[in-house]
Amino acid sequence: MNDPIDRNDPYETTELHVERLLGRALNSFDLPDALVERLRSALAHASALHSSHHSAALHRATYRHTYLLADGESLTLWELVHHTGEDDRDHHELYGDEAEVRLAAARLSAAFGLPGTVRRADPLDDDLDADLELLSALLVRPLAPAPRLYVPDDSADHARRVLRRAENADRPGEAVAARLRGAYAHHIQQVFGRQCGVAGGRDAGFSLYEHAFLLLDGTEMSVWEVEHTATPDGRHMCEVYEDEHTARAAMEVRAARAW
């Protein structure tokens, strides 16, 4: 049976994960519209095997997919994956409630004359708790924004240094750099900061800064700097992005890689 967690693609974004999950489910049209709409705002996700059964007649597994939403709430989907001995193609079903997926699994077992009970995968549930702790640490509500106070202090050079130290390949390009050469004042504020555990029992730090600039033409623009130590050797790394959403998504990816 293929693994719905898709461990071969650990850098899959939450948006793509949701699309893949809904796209392959035979009964996705049965999910409430309100649930699907909330799912569209998911910022991070964690998946784990919840129960399984394997026999000559039937292979069945239940997965729990938990999402952290933009409003700070969490949402859980239950996925039933099954195939028979004659048909080795996976079939996927989605449910919004654990009782519903248990009933579906019991009915499936009954159709093959098998016991309706399921074998729990408790050790993997422990792994999920660890995953959720990490995701919660990354996606806590942002720090309260400080009042923006622009300071004219060689701001064009500050912008140049911020862009120069960025190590990410998708950092802002020449168009952004050209605009920032017209910066005459700037303001820096930290909007996120957290320490969390990663693989190997060590801690990694994540910080997100907004560098806001006031330009000579009277307009404002910002770049977003991610500083973290989720690197193989624990060294400090800086990445810069053009918008906050992309910067936060990058933190999620870095945390997933480190985990």
From TrEMBL:
Which superkingdom, per the lineage?
Bacteria
| InterPro entries the UniProt entry points to | DUF6227 (IPR046195)
- What name does UniProt use for this protein? Uncharacterized protein
Q: Which species is listed as the source? A: Streptomyces roseolilacinus
